Amino acid sequence: MNKIISIVLIVVGAVLIVLGVEATNSFRSDVSRFFTGSPTDKAVWMLIGGIACALVGLAGTLRGSRQG
């Protein structure tokens, strides 16, 4: 069961990373980057959340494979 959850976290993380990259390339992020120098908060949080989910899922998968 833990391995399934870990794999789901990796997939969710990958989806969030892809959506975050798409959001950073959007018109809204371009406008935000023009005025503030950084992309929108939504894009940044999707990237951070995606990386965190993927890392937790990867750690769970690796930990599960060593146990048994």
Q: Tell me the quaternary state.
A: single chain
**Main beta-sheet annotation:** none
Structural class: mainly alpha
Would you list the SSEs in sequence order as H and E? HHH
Unreliable runs, pLDDT <50, ≥5 residues?
Answer: none
* Rounded average pLDDT: 91
Helix content: over 70%
Give the number of domains. Answer: 1
Q: State the distance separating the first and last CA atoms.
A: 13 Å
Q: What is the CA-atom radius of gyration, in angstroms?
A: 15 Å
Number of helices: 3
Tags for this model:
68 residues; mainly alpha; elongated
Give your account of this protein's structure:
- This protein has one domain (2-67).
- 88% of the residues lie in helices and 0% in strands.
- The protein has three helices and no strands.
- The two termini are 13 Å apart.
- The model has no long low-confidence stretch (mean pLDDT 91).
Describe the structure in brief:
With 68 residues, this protein is an all-alpha fold. The protein has helices spanning 2-24, 27-36, 41-67.
Helix and strand arrangement:
Blueprint: H1 2-24, H2 27-36, H3 41-67
